[in-house]
Amino acid sequence: MKIMERAGRKIGLICLAAALMAALAGCGAKSPLDPKDPVSLTVWHYYNGSQQAAFDALVEEFNDTAGRELGIYVESYSQGSVPDLESAVRDAINGKVGAAAMPDIFSSYADTAYEVEQAGALADLSSYLGGEELEKYVDSYIEEGRIAADGTLRIFPTAKSTEIMMINRTDWEDFSAATGAALEDLRTIEGVAEVSKAYYEWTDSLTPDVPEDGRAFYGRDAMANYFIIGLQQLGVEIFQVENGEMTLNTPREELRRLWENYYVPMVKGYFGAYGSFRSDDVKTGDILAYTGSTTSAMYFPDQVELDEGSRPIDYIVMPAPVFEGGRACAVQQGAGMVVSRSDQRHEYASVEFLKWFTQAENNLRFGSVSGYLPVLKEANSTEKLDEVIADQGLTVSPKTYDCLTTIFSEMEGMNLYTNKSFQNGSAARKVLEYHLADRAAADRAVVLEAIAQGESLEEASADYVSDGAFEEWYGAFCEALRAAAGK
After folding, report:
1. Does pTM surpass 0.85?
2. Would you tell me how many other CB atoms lie within 10 Å of the CB of residue 48?
3. Consecutive H or E run containing 236
4. CA dist., res. 351 & res. 156, Å (int)
5. What's the pLDDT tens digit per position in 202-256?
């Protein structure tokens, strides 16, 4: 059925007979809500800090306005982190002793939502949203939420993100002036590798009495995205899912390009990964640039902190680099909200809250603080963002603003992609996240030991960047991925 426009407190409904829920059978049914007998909803999420404050403020506003009018009261609770939230949900589903009851709504990535859907614990949101309503949302966001076997909607898109590149402008300008390196060189992944090599060699030359002490230029968060999106740019879908069945695609030639443009620069010290996130590494001066989520903009440091003291830095925001000759494809990520299967009133009320939260003005208010992208088509523009900032009198961090507007300017020519969910998807993604990164970190440590013993970088790294080294890694990687995916 389609939820019609409100006239006061009345809500008209039209029939979609094939999808009618028994509890709301018949056309023209009234809203199951009663302002005199409000329904209470519990929302679990993983937001913290300014994100949590922004979300809680919107929840409070909903309760005082639309929620009061409709008869809905929402309480939100942060579960701390994504893993903590996932554990709490699993404990609730399994009825673990001491676990809290299932919330009415909770944040969820597609792999976790798929797992909960397999347990029969998610509501069918298609029963509460009509075609015209769904068309207002970015198509790929809605498609990501169709994880049920019959293609019905289970994940409500609420806030999305993609990847960008952020650069320490202050130190970049010194390097650029000395070497002629240009920002345009950073638009391809191969270009990033070449610039990183040049930066290592330049910083090494600054201390001629100390050999091989060059510094890393670049790092990246989320290695799984590097594999999934990098291969997609090269025309390969690593996890090809149809009718719930996953076909694994691991072509040697394309994976060689990924290996050469991450593992090799890591082993040679051109790339780096030291702290929990690459924004941490920029703060400590260990790298100058990274690829990370749009939500990381708020964590990009205002200064570099060294043993001898701190110094301020400026920033540059650029689109995430793409493989040379590859298609313009970027990751679509960010948890949506799912609704627990319960009863008519709670499910209906949950969808009403989520529709309110994703209205352009409300969603952009949240995004302007968090760095998340809005989910309605009309909201994904600099003009709409500026309008909301002016109307609401918002104070927006310049880094977050530049990050969002950079993505808005690129969206028309950009293909956003996320793989479809499948059984063992989380385990398979962990192989992408850690297999190559852990190998690179371990091998870099051995190379550094050899350099300390007097070998040159080329001598110390030769065995690790050879054809044989790639073949050995490729075989181990494919075997680990097949085992994790159950193939």
Report:
1. yes
2. 12
3. none
4. 8
5. 999 999 999 999 999 999 999 999 999 999 999 999 999 998 899 999 999 999 9
